[in-house]
Design goal:
With 226 residues, this protein is α/β, with parallel strands linked by helices. It has a single domain, classed as Aldolase class I (TIM Barrel), CATH 3.20.20.70. The chain contains eleven helices and eight strands. The protein has an eight-stranded parallel beta barrel with strand order 1-2-3-4-5-6-7-8, surrounded by eight helices. Helix 4 (67-80) crosses helix 5 and helix 6 packs parallel to helix 8 (144-156). Bound molecules: erythose-4-phosphate.
Length: 226
């Protein structure tokens, strides 16, 4: 399973990229708002992320509410850079805009997906990526991972070669809160987990690793002091 980072923060993206294990970036309107960016700076900011992550897919979300608005904004966003993926919401307008943009060769990431039926509709409408949300289920005491398992099972056993520009659909486990979400997503066959920096650090660190590193350093200090 590949790792995307779920942030619009350039410093976080640069740090995660420096680890050599980053395969892409996802953003959303809330993550952009967290950067304190202004409306007029949104597209230049998405371009900065795309340039920082040249060759890696960077999802930039449309905030339009109509088919026409989503298509127009999607064309603008995808024209910013070849690695920009247009994120659209799972609704009637999002499906129609997804089909229109996919027919123009634009890669679409269908977001705010909470069921296998939504995922199937999105894949048929030409979505290149589908983002089932896990954590927001857990936030309301439901089981997001079981929904993710349904999405993976339904999407993985079908040939989507004639539905979108790349002829394949990848599932991005989204709304990730914990390392267990990452592990379970990988075990059930999600293609990607998009993970916020806080959870990425929890995936990276382990108390036994940290203790082992400290004891190696202490023992080596004895060697160098002899
Ligand atoms: C990613 O594409 C989603 O927008 C993101 O993972 C949502 O995460 P949240 O549920 O923590 O807002």
């Amino acid at each position: 399973m590949k790792f995307f980072i779920d942030t619009a923060n350039l410093d976080e993206i640069a740090e995660a990229k420096s680890w050599g294990c980053l395969a892409g970036v996802t953003t959303n309107p809330s993550l952009y708002a967290k950067t304190g960016g202004k409306l007029e700076d949104f597209e230049p900011h998405m371009l900065k992320i795309a340039e920082l992550c040249e060759g890696l897919p960077v999802s930039a979300e449309s905030t339009a509410m109509t088919v026409e608005g989503m298509v127009e904004e999607g064309r603008r966003l995808s024209a910013l850079a070849p690695n920009i993926v247009v994120k659209l919401p799972m609704c009637e307008a999002g499906l129609a805009a997804c089909r229109a943009l996919a027919n123009e060769g634009v890669r679409v990431n269908m977001t705010l997906v909470f069921s296998a039926t939504q995922a199937l509709l999105a894949a048929n409408a030409g979505a290149r990526y589908i983002s089932p949300f896990v954590g927001r289920y857990d936030d309301i005491a439901l089981d997001g991972l079981s929904q993710l398992a349904d999405v993976v099972a339904c999407i993985k056993n079908y040939d989507w070669s004639d539905k979108n520009p790349d002829g394949r659909v990848e599932i991005i486990a989204a709304s990730i809160r914990t390392p267990n979400h990452v592990t379970q997503a990988a075990l059930m066959g999600a293609d990607i987990a998009t993970v916020p920096m806080k959870a990425l650090k929890k995936c990276l660190h382990h108390p036994l690793t940290d203790a082992g590193l400290a004891s190696f350093a202490a023992d080596w200090a004895r060697v160098t002091s002899n």
